[in-house]
Amino acid sequence: MGAKKKIWFWIIVAMQLLFIFKMVHDTYFNDRWATKYDVHSKEAVVKNIDYTLRDSNFSGTALVIRNHKVLLHKGYGKQNGSRGNDVDTLYNIASIEKSMTSVMVAKLIQDGRLNYSTKLVEFYPSIPNAENITIRNMLTMTSGLEAASDPERALNEKTLVNYYVKHIVVDPRKGWDYDAVNFHLLAGIITQITHKNYGASFDELVNLKSEAKVMVMPNFSDKRVALSYHKNGKPYANPRYIYSNEIGTGSFFMTAGDLYRYFAALVNGEILPMKTVKELFKTSTHSVYAGGVYHNKLYYRGHGILQGYEPSIIFNRTAGNAVVLLGNRKGKTTTMKLTNSIYSLVNETPYLGGNTY
């Protein structure tokens, strides 16, 4: 072997060793607590989860499920000036609501009133490239659509969708590009077909056999509703128009228990037949996002951020193992990183990584 070849050989070997070291480091040492404990008992798991949430200054409600049984379900931090968060506290679920919008679309398709291949041009012909954008593209965020701006005042549902129709740009070369405008348009399509508003359409199309309640729009005079706070402890103003302008994309408020029951019902065929769920959850070559959640071979993830609320959920294919964190004040880290860490601890598997989506 020549001198130059030997040099390149050892450079490649060194790079491979560095790559292996980085994987081991990222997997086992980024979150030290995730590998700090030798977990054997339920009590040890619960103790470690509780420690992690407190150490991270988590404020909200946590629900942890293992083998279909509750390991931990409790509140942390304050709900408002006089009450602490508890298991009955309602939080904004932000972008996780897109799952509900996706389910409504799937139900319309199941009923024969829509199709995954239906083109956007049938509903909003003035949108550029609408003749090439399908319902599936919007559900998987592969439409190339992007909102040029967002309204800064309260709009009713029809006016809101029309605003986005007039303030939209498209770049079909983008591949996967997360933008809520896809779901604003899907909400508009749903209401066009049902001839009802979004809330009434949800009641008609999403038959929750399990007990899972939804507050479609926040009622901040309800003592169960958590206020949201900046990291410094100052409450958000939370004008109502923020949420009325998020219909279909982030207006719903739920408890951690109800959000878990919704997803458990969905992935176990209680809301839609399993065949319909599998079709809804089909991802594309450009996207791991479908049906309002991110997909992995072993689990699903949901995440959102809006006005100080940060909901996160991760659950396996049957929802027998799950972590739900509904937060109302930013702590030391994101709730998504916390759910990843706690889920790995519950399953006694390596740390899943620091993804914030």
Task: Describe this structure as you would to a colleague.
It is a single chain. This protein has 357 residues and is an alpha+beta fold. Strands 2-1-11-10-9-8-7 form a 7-stranded antiparallel β-sheet, with helices on both faces. It has a two-stranded antiparallel sheet with strand order 3-6. Strands 4-5 form a two-stranded antiparallel sheet. A hairpin with a 5-residue loop joins strand 10 (310-316) and strand 11 (322-329). 36% of the residues lie in helices and 14% in strands. It contains 12 helices and 11 strands. The protein has one domain (33-346): Beta-lactamase, CATH 3.40.710.
Range of helix content: 25-40%
Count helical runs.
12
DSSP strand count = 11
Structural class: alpha+beta
Assign the CATH architecture. 3-Layer(aba) Sandwich
Distance between the ends: 48 Å
CA gyration radius, whole angstroms = 22 Å
The overall number of domains is: 1
Element-by-element helix/strand order:
HHHEEEHHEHEHHHEHHEEEEEH
SSE inventory with pairings:
Blueprint (H helix, E strand, L loop, with lengths): L2 H26 L3 H5 L5 H14 L3 E8 L2 E8 L14 E2 L5 H13 L24 H5 L5 E3 L9 H10 L1 E3 L10 H14 L3 H8 L35 H4 L8 E2 L1 H12 L6 H7 L8 E2 L2 E3 L3 E5 L6 E7 L5 E8 L5 H12 L11
Antiparallel strand pairs: 1-2, 1-11, 3-6, 4-5, 7-8, 8-9, 9-10, 10-11
Helix pairs in contact: 3-12, 4-7, 4-11, 6-7
